[in-house]
Amino acid sequence: MDHSYQVWQEVLAEEFFGRQHAGHPTLFYVDDDVEQELRHGYGIEEPLAHCVGKFLRLGTAEPYSSLEDYRWRKRQQDKDGVPAFLPLVACSVMAASRMVNDRNHRATAYHARFSELLTGDEKQLGSHHYEPISRMWQVLASWQHSQKGARGLCTIPVPADLPSNRSMIGFAQSQALLSGADRSFMPKFFRSLREHGTTWPLPGQTLLAQIEIRGMERHFSKGFRNAMQEEEFRSFLAKLIGNYAASWDGSDELVPTGVTRAELLVRLDAGRLSWVARLRSVEQKKRIEFQGGVVLEQLGDTAYYEVTGLSAPSADTLARGIRRDGNDFVLSRASCSVLVLSRDDVLGVWAGTDGFRPGEAHVVLAAPTAQRDVQRLLDKAATTGRSADTSKLAWVPQGWSLHKPVTFDDAVTLRRALQEVQGAVGLLQPPAQFKLRLEGGLKLAPSLDPHLYLRGGEPQVVLPDATEGAGTLLIDGTERPELRKVISAGLPVPLAPLRLEPGRHRVGYAGVEIDFGTADQAVVEPKMTKVCGFTVVDGKASESPSLLVEQNLASGITGADCTSAATQDAGAVLELCRRDADEVLFAAADGRLWTLEAPEQPGWWTERLPDTPAPLRFEADFHGIGGWLLERRNGRWKGRPVNPGTPKPKSASNPRAWARAVLNVQQASVEPSWAEYVQAAKELDR
């Protein structure tokens, strides 16, 4: 793969899936104008379509195989990076943006335009070649969901949302429906509807109807207007703008790209409602200040923040929405008339969620304007919680109804009911699933095998959202009749009741397989590691600690034990750091950065040792992590490796701090391993 393709991959990844999109709905919108802007803005000489077309294997059954091979090679280097097929799927969006009636093609003729774009011949690539690109879109969506919004909120539809006759090309078409001008106009459109005090957010079908009633079509792009006229795509277009309405925070513009949005969530704990914020950005700050004296304080090392300076959630604040601005941050919550809470695994309490989760308990609060829609939904699909709780609880917003615990034991019935019931509840769809995966379970020794589970504690299987008849769930190549009821209900499939024998097992669905193992126990052999202590010669201990070799390990003094030394944890590495160093840093391979502080001199030194030793060094243990230990003395930096490995700093929460530190001390060593760290830091600092 030549340099130009790699450049296009990096440009598209940064432009559409960079960290500046954290918390924002992201459309992978590429038309001819956008392609030219990117080419001129980044100084790329070769046009996108020409760059991709060079690597097609025309005349073969798999014309995109070389591009797929490149993607897999890049994945081996960075498993969490953006899938390396963006130039190809970007071309598929460009082809969708050209779908208009002309002298040669109907507006629905897609493959001829796609083939002409990449090969110059409208018949070289046909619909039978397109299935790999359809899979790429699902891989891209699954990756974006796995980033939990840190690379933008996914707007790629699930296969079940697409018209059956366009199930493959629908992914590309979905991204070509809303241009940048469409998205920038939507807040004005939303505000014009909210001024009438209507329930919010409105479902997408109602929004489309309002566009037509008010004659606002002229404000939208031609692609948007064409999609409104197509019955097959109108439903998906409605869902797309409905999702934008649900994320709109009430301001005159969408949160600008590059400004991180912290989301306000409602928390229910100890009989009261309060606010908690969630920051989807990869870079997590400890403290963030906003206008009006609002302050966020990070809760541990999670993505959640305690909020001070805001009044408690009430009927008024929930209905109006909230927005506060800070330095490159926006704290906001869109107004709503239905509030759904579920158990949050991180917070350990009830907290606001984006949609219903089949099989789990929920607390549902509804404003007076939405109570009828909520009751209709619960009557159609809920297993428990259909009747409103009439007890007078102080924390329930004034005039709002309460249902608890609300559960949906049939995901298929829930999805159907959400489609039938119009109103604010129509947007509370269960989270999208794009690929077969394992969830939960009791893992045994993840350091040895990340897919090894305790027998009886096997995980659940989460099936992807797909059209009916997509496949049969096979366990070790066999269909299990006892699972049919759970599968038909659309719930995660538990494997523990199957009582699988210890050993390797295989789960398969729709041509995709996942391997895992079960065992009654896992034996982890401890590894010999370095032991630090004081050597003893002729009954006299050394003045300073050192690493004990095997010959003097038994007689050396280690901690409070004079006769033997306890082994370190498996995988731990012990290093000695100088107490007289001006600064001690540890730059981890995964992009984390620590400042090591010298601990106080142990009290047992004076009690157990014949003479008070010179406090020259202190111990530092590194458990399951590698990197470089850096010490500054007399203005000079020196470094030494600690299982350094290959540096991959991009996955860290604050990789730029790591890069700045590494570049500041790049003269610390001449070893090749350190040169790799310096190079990785330079790439981040560009």
Structure, described:
Strands 3, 4, 5, 6, 7, 8, 9, 10, 11, 12 and 13 form an 11-stranded mixed beta sheet that branches. It contains 19 helices and 30 strands. The longest helix has 17 residues, at 231-247. With 686 residues, the chain is α+β, with helices and mostly antiparallel strands.
Provide the helix percentage. Answer: 25-40%
Enumerate the spans where pLDDT stays under 50 for 5 or more consecutive residues.
560-570
User: Main β-sheet: number of strands, strand sense, barrel status?
Assistant: 11 strands, mixed
Query: Could you give the count of β-strands?
Result: 30
- Mean pLDDT over all positions: 85
Count the DSSP helices: 19
Radius of gyration: 29 Å
Summarize the structure.
This protein has 686 residues and is of the alpha+beta class.
Key phrases:
eleven-stranded mixed beta sheet, alpha+beta, globular, 19 helices, single chain, 686 residues
What layout of secondary structure does this protein have?
Blueprint: H1 3-17, E1 25-26, H2 32-41, H3 48-53, H4 65-77, H5 86-97, H6 111-119, H7 131-146, E2 153-154, H8 170-175, H9 180-194, H10 204-213, H11 222-229, H12 231-247, E3 260-269, E4 272-279, E5 287-289, E6 295-298, E7 304-308, H13 315-320, E8 322-325, E9 329-333, E10 338-343, E11 350-352, E12 362-366, H14 371-381, E13 401-406, H15 411-420, E14 437-439, E15 452-454, E16 460-462, E17 474-475, H16 484-488, E18 493-494, E19 503-509, E20 512-519, E21 532-533, E22 536-537, E23 540-541, E24 546-547, E25 572-578, E26 583-588, E27 593-595, H17 604-608, E28 617-623, E29 627-633, E30 636-642, H18 655-664, H19 672-684
Parallel strand pairs: 1-2, 3-9, 15-20
Antiparallel strand pairs: 3-4, 3-11, 4-7, 5-6, 6-7, 8-9, 10-11, 10-12, 12-13, 14-16, 16-18, 17-19, 19-20, 21-24, 22-23, 25-28, 26-27, 26-29, 29-30
Helix pairs in contact: 5-6, 10-12, 11-12, 18-19
